[in-house]
Please model this.
Amino acid sequence: MSCHDIGRGMNAVVRRTITLFDRKEIALEPAKIIIASCANAVNWCDGNEYEAVDFISHCRCGKCLKLIPKGEKLYSIWDVTVPKQSSRDHWIFETKNKLELVTDGMCEECFDHYIPEVCDSDLDLEAMKRKIEEDGPDSVISEGKEREHNNGYIWGTDSYWYQR
Ligand SMILES: [Zn+2]
Model:
């Protein structure tokens, strides 16, 4: 049994980080470092990284943090054709590190720009995108806004000074 509490706790910090980022009170790089740290912090218990970033993973790009409008493309790096010599898990870990991704999803602009850097040189990007869209149309479409719950639990009332 993994621990879901630590993921919810970290997801609350991700939510606050995004609030500051959207208000331009915090820049992209520090926002991403905090979010990535939240995802990694679930390892202080037997937590799940996807729960720590649930607030943004269905609607924002993990590279540029752009909010992707509802219905537009949000590609998962799990659907990328992995280079011939790599194991999938190792490639995902390396790619998230190399591209500095805070979630597994990418907007189409970032996907087009960065994915060729981490794939075989003979990659046909357009063909791969078509295959991803055909195989899993639900997994590549943005929900258009952040989740209104924390991994299924309602968010608490904002009453502390830092929540203003
Ligand atoms: Zn992007």
Remarks:
- The pocket of zinc ion is lined by residues 61, 63-64, 66, 106-107, 109-110 (CB under 6 Å).
